[in-house]
Amino acid sequence: MNHSKFSLVIFSLLFVPLASGTPSKGVTAVRNDIQVAGPDVSDAQLKKTLLDKLTYVSMGYGSTFDAITLEVQNGVVTLGGHSHDYPNRDSALAVVSTTPGVKDVIDNIEVDPVSPMDWNIRLAVARAVYGYPSLNRYAIDPAQPIRISVQNGNVELYGVVDSQADKDVAYMRANSVPGVFSVKNYLQVAGQPGEKQQ
């Protein structure tokens, strides 16, 4: 057998398992030109993983001034809520889209308008809320702060607090800031079902 025939035989033997439709051990299966990267991840596990990543990896999502929401259904992730700027929104999208198990990402994040007045209101509301003695503990844990979104003088509060009293105080403190037109209180009390956003 000459050298070229020998090479052809070896080449054929190496790729017979791929041609037969059953991948050999260590070969990733390919369906419709899309690589299948192992078993599906449950929606609950995927949501937990994404929340952990968004909280601790993406500094933008961890910001007090971003209130990004996350839902997972059949591996499709929908991001919503508000971000105070485009880099933080893009950071959240990048973290989610590169996570194994995510099949698709729907971007419904609203970026708050750029406004010096809104920025000043954000800072004033943060000082009013976090400066209150019963609420300043929420500023210590970056994973669970009270999140503040401002759009044209209208404030929205997001996050999880320990009690109804904390939720009510945060609302009153935000409402007392000069220049605030309205306050929507979407804070959830730990262990209670959350309000539906309007």
Helix-strand blueprint:
Elements: H1 3-19, E1 30-31, E2 34-35, H2 43-56, E3 67-73, E4 76-83, H3 86-97, E5 104-107, E6 110-111, H4 116-130, E7 147-151, E8 154-158, E9 160-161, H5 164-175, E10 182-185, E11 188-189
Helix pairs in contact: 4-5
Please, could you describe this protein's structure?
Helix 4 (116-130) packs across helix 5. Strands 3, 4, 5 and 6 form a 4-stranded mixed β-sheet that branches. This protein has a 3-stranded mixed β-sheet with strand order 7-8-10, with helices on one face. By secondary structure, it is of the alpha/beta class. 25% of the residues are buried. The chain is built from 5 helices and 11 strands; from the N terminus they run αββαββαββαβββαββ. It has 2 domains: 43-111, Histidine-containing Protein, Chain: A, CATH 3.30.1340; 116-189, 2-Layer Sandwich (Histidine-containing Protein, Chain: A), CATH 3.30.1340.30.
From the alpha-carbon coordinates, what is the Rg to the nearest angstrom?
25 Å
Total number of distinct structural domains:
2
Low-pLDDT stretches are: 3-38, 57-62
The structural class is alpha/beta
The general outline is globular
Main sheet summary: 4 strands, mixed
Helix and strand run:
HEEHEEHEEHEEEHEE
Reported CATH architecture of the largest domain: 2-Layer Sandwich
| Quaternary organization | single chain
CATH class of the largest domain: Alpha Beta
State the helix count.
5
Residue-averaged pLDDT? 76
Question: Tally of extended strands?
Answer: 11
Give the DSSP E fraction (strand runs of 2 or more residues): 15-25%
Instruction: Examine the coordinates and then state which fold CATH places here, giving the name of the CATH topology of the largest domain.
Output: Histidine-containing Protein, Chain: A
Assign a percent range to the helix content.
25-40%
End-to-end span in angstroms?
A: 78 Å
